[in-house]
């Protein structure tokens, strides 16, 4: 499995964790009656907090992932060469394995299209809910979930393209 | 309708004749990841013209010797 695939899997797990955590938290608050369905300010507040947590968590997890990956590569390289202390060679190997090239950029672009489609469908669905007189919280939640799901599916699409390959044009 | 073109390559052979150059070594020479070289070799990714030139240059041959194409459905 390549560096890009591992990084994508880590991102998917982080995104999924945030989405599930939000789902549980929001459902509990709604069920217990702490937040009403038409209290748009409270819902917006919860979502902003979870977006903030998501961003911070994604950054922290990516940093930890890169540190662990670098350590793993260094150990593998030392075991392979049987030498100790050749740090420059190990650093070269780490940066060679973490390189991002034209194929990665193309896969990223193609996967991003999946994310936009899901977010677009979510946006339209959110508007439709208002036509059927659902509370504003439903609109916000549909938007939040569709953007999160779009991000997760973007990751899955990336893994799919890495596995299946990608053609220009 | 335009016919589909399948890009083929002889990278594996050229690597063999280049003293069994590894995919990683070729990747480092042309500035891409090993995953990309692997995908190109397997025909899962068609490289940009620039990268194709760089790969040919790494073997010291012309681009046409490394890459070729087949028109599908002929």
UniProtKB/TrEMBL annotation, chain A:
<feature type="transmembrane region" description="Helical">
    <location>
        <begin position="42"/>
        <end position="75"/>
    </location>
</feature>
<feature type="transmembrane region" description="Helical">
    <location>
        <begin position="9"/>
        <end position="27"/>
    </location>
</feature>
<protein>
    <submittedName>
        <fullName>Uncharacterized protein</fullName>
    </submittedName>
</protein>
<keyword id="KW-0812">Transmembrane</keyword>
<keyword id="KW-1133">Transmembrane helix</keyword>
<feature type="transmembrane region" description="Helical">
    <location>
        <begin position="138"/>
        <end position="162"/>
    </location>
</feature>
<feature type="transmembrane region" description="Helical">
    <location>
        <begin position="114"/>
        <end position="132"/>
    </location>
</feature>
<keyword id="KW-0472">Membrane</keyword>
From TrEMBL, chain B:
<dbReference type="InterPro" id="IPR001387">
    <property type="entry name" value="Cro/C1-type_HTH"/>
</dbReference>
<keyword id="KW-0238">DNA-binding</keyword>
<dbReference type="Pfam" id="PF01381">
    <property type="entry name" value="HTH_3"/>
</dbReference>
<dbReference type="GO" id="GO:0003677">
    <property type="term" value="F:DNA binding"/>
</dbReference>
<feature type="domain" description="HTH cro/C1-type">
    <location>
        <begin position="21"/>
        <end position="66"/>
    </location>
</feature>
<dbReference type="InterPro" id="IPR010982">
    <property type="entry name" value="Lambda_DNA-bd_dom_sf"/>
</dbReference>
<protein>
    <submittedName>
        <fullName>Helix-turn-helix transcriptional regulator</fullName>
    </submittedName>
</protein>
């Amino acid at each position: 499995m390549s560096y890009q695939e591992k990084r994508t899997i880590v991102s998917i797990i982080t995104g999924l964790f945030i989405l599930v955590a939000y789902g549980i938290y929001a459902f509990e608050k709604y069920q217990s009656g702490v937040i009403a369905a038409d209290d748009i300010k409270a819902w917006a507040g919860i979502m902003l907090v979870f977006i903030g947590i998501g961003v911070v968590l994604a950054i922290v997890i990516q940093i930890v992932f890169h540190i662990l990956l670098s350590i793993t590569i260094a150990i593998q390289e030392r075991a392979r060469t049987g030498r100790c202390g050749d740090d420059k060679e190990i650093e070269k190997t780490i940066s060679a394995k973490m390189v991002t090239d034209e194929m990665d950029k193309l896969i990223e672009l193609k996967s991003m299209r999946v994310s936009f489609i899901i977010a677009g469908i979510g946006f339209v669905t959110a508007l439709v809910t208002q036509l059927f007189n659902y509370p504003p919280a439903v609109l916000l939640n549909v938007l939040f979930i569709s953007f999160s799901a779009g991000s997760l599916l973007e990751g899955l699409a990336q893994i799919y393209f890495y596995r299946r390959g990608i053609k220009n044009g | 309708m335009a016919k589909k073109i399948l890009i083929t390559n002889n990278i594996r052979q050229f690597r063999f004749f280049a003293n069994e150059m590894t995919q990683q070594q070729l990747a480092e020479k042309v500035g891409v990841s090993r995953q990309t070289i692997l995908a190109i070799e397997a025909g899962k990714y068609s490289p940009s013209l620039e990268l194709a030139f760089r790969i040919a240059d790494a073997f010291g041959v012309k681009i046409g010797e490394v890459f070729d194409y087949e028109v599908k459905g002929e």
